[in-house]
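Q: What structure does this chain adopt?
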Amino acid sequence: DDATYRFSSSLFFTCAHLYASQVRALRKASAAPGIINIRHGDTRSLRLKEPVDAILTGPPYPGVYDYLSYAELALDKLEGARTNVVQHDREIGARRLWRQEDRLTDFVAKWQIQQQQWLGAAYSNLRSGGTATLMIGDGGISDSLGGWIEPIDDLQSTIQAAEAVGFRVLATSTLSSTLEDIGFATKGQIRTEHMVHLGKP
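A:
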C-alpha cells in the first residue's frame, strides 16, 4: 500500500543516495578513478580477473532483515528498472528464511553454509598476504519490547566459516550495549556488532 511504499522507498533511497555519494567521493579521492567500478551480482560466484589486496564489507545480519523486499517495493517506481533483478532465492541470511524454517537450528545450519560460500569467494579473490575486514552483527528476531528472541552469535559463526576456508583471524572487536532501561534501547542500540579482521596466508 502507499504507506508501506513511502516507508520502504524512503529507507531504500536514503541508503542508495548515501552509497552513491560515497562511491563518488572514493572516485574523486582515487589517483586512478577509472579503475573503480560497481558490479551487480552474487558475491559467492564473483571471480575477479586479478586478485586484490584488501576487502572491506558488511555482510547481512542473519535473520534480521529482508533486504531484497525493500528494493522490490521500490522497483516499479524506478525508471528503467529491471523486474528480474530481485531473486529472493539467492538472498542469504534473510529474515523470511528464518520464518520458513521449523527450527532455529535449521536456519543456523543453512546460514553457516552460506557464510562459507561467500567467505570462500572472498578468499579466492585476495592475494596472498591480503586482508578482509568485516562489520557483522548478531542475528535474531526482536520482540515487542525491543529485546532479542533466540540470538545468533555471528562472531563465532564468522570465525568458524573464515577458518574453514583458509583465513587467519588477525583481530576482532565487539560493540555491545550496556543499557538496562528498555525504553532507551532502540533496535540499533541493543544489537551486538563486531569487526573482524582476516588475513590470507
